[in-house]
Specification:
The complex is a heterodimer of chains A (about 110) and B (about 110).
Chain A lengths: L4 E3 L2 E4 L5 E6 L6 E8 L3 E9 L2 E5 L6 E5 L5 E5 L8 E8 L8 E2 L3 E5 L1
Parallel strand pairs in A: 2-11
Antiparallel strand pairs in A: 1-3, 3-8, 4-5, 4-9, 5-6, 7-8, 9-10, 9-11
Chain B lengths: L3 E4 L2 E5 L4 E7 L6 E7 L6 E7 L4 E4 L2 E6 L4 E6 L8 E11 L2 E6 L3 E6 L1
Parallel strand pairs in B: 2-11
Antiparallel strand pairs in B: 1-3, 3-8, 4-5, 4-9, 6-7, 7-8, 9-10, 9-11
The chains are: A mainly beta (about 110), B mainly beta (about 110).
């Protein structure tokens, strides 16, 4: 157990809908990262937050957004969902803002039908 | 942008043999290279990493080498065990001040045959 908690574990929704994925980082970790893993795109970095502020952006679509709250948990919002958004979404956390000692959660499997 | 190629995509070895996975990157500014192990149904787990100012790093049966000139880095697993079976990902990361860019390889599925 990495100490990073992601909910829900599985999510099935229809095209055009909006969903929110939640991540609770390890106790004491200030940085949260979001990743998408799909069969055709592999593992991709989406976005990073550090202590409530956006730190870095990767291949995140405009339909997606994220935030980190004062209690350091983070949410990834996916809107206007398309079939191609079906993937595993991972959250990771680390103490510092660099992607060094990052610990991954078990992921949320999103299926868009 | 950065491009990371990882080879092979699948690798089968006999228990006790060594396994080597190689990655090449394109952006010479990348300065941090972690390796992750992902078991079925789990998230990636950092197993070893190396920074651009280091040529080699070892942790028990796992070692990583970096050739900055050739822009490639490799994961070496010695005395493989069945529990080493998993998908392994390399990544090239550019850390510069508050900016970070992360690019992953496409993964190698390692099977260790008992």
């Amino acid at each position: 157990d990495s100490g990073v908690t992601q909910t829900p574990k599985h999510l099935i929704t229809a095209t055009g809908q909006r969903v929110t994925l939640r991540c609770s980082p390890r106790s004491g970790d200030l940085s949260v990262y979001w990743y998408q893993q799909s069969l055709d795109q592999g593992l991709q970095f989406l976005i990073q937050y550090y202590n409530g502020e956006e730190r870095a952006k990767g291949n995140i679509l405009e339909r997606f957004s994220a935030q980190q709250f004062p209690d350091l948990h983070s949410e990834l919002n996916l809107s206007s969902l398309e079939l191609g958004d079906s993937a595993l979404y991972f959250c990771a956390s680390s103490i510092r803002g660099q992607n060094t000692e990052a610990f991954f959660g078990q992921g949320t499997r999103l299926t868009v039908v | 942008g950065e491009n990371v190629e990882q080879h092979p995509s699948t690798l089968s070895v006999q228990e006790g043999d060594s396994a080597v996975i190689k990655c090449t990157y394109s952006d010479s500014a990348s300065n941090y290279f972690p390796w992750y192990k992902q078991e079925l149904g789990k998230g990636p787990q950092l197993i070893i990493d190396i920074r651009s100012n280091v040529g080699e790093k070892k942790d028990q049966r796992i070692a990583v080498t970096l050739n900055k000139t050739a822009k490639h880095f490799s994961l070496h697993i010695t005395e493989t065990q069945p529990e080493d079976s998993a998908v392994y990902f390399c990544a090239a990361i550019l850390n510069s001040g508050g900016y970070q860019k992360v690019t992953f390889g496409t993964g190698t599925k390692l099977q260790v045959i008992p």
